[in-house]
What does this fold into?
Amino acid sequence: MYEVRGWMVGCRMLTVKQWDDYVRFNKARADKEMCNSVLLRESILHTLQQTSSDLLAQHTASAYGYRHRLHEYSMALDELQYQKKLVSSLCYQFISQCRVVVVGGISH
It folds into this structure.
């Protein structure tokens, strides 16, 4: 079966000027594609750098938030332990006073 190949040009079908124009056109098109490729590559690199920068900023913010929350938790835990100790001390004093009152009340 016969297949038409548009990219194949017979040597007797074109003049030298036509061939020269065709080559110049193809070269100009290839140069344009190369420029577009360079621009695309630069755009991709910029996007990758921006993404990397954004991820680093997010990581830094998350790490700071985590450390801040851990510090708040530690401070709250210290406060609760202090209050527990204070309440225990007050309960011990109250129980001691109750024993004195009960023992004093029984002996009289």
About this structure: The mean pLDDT is 89.
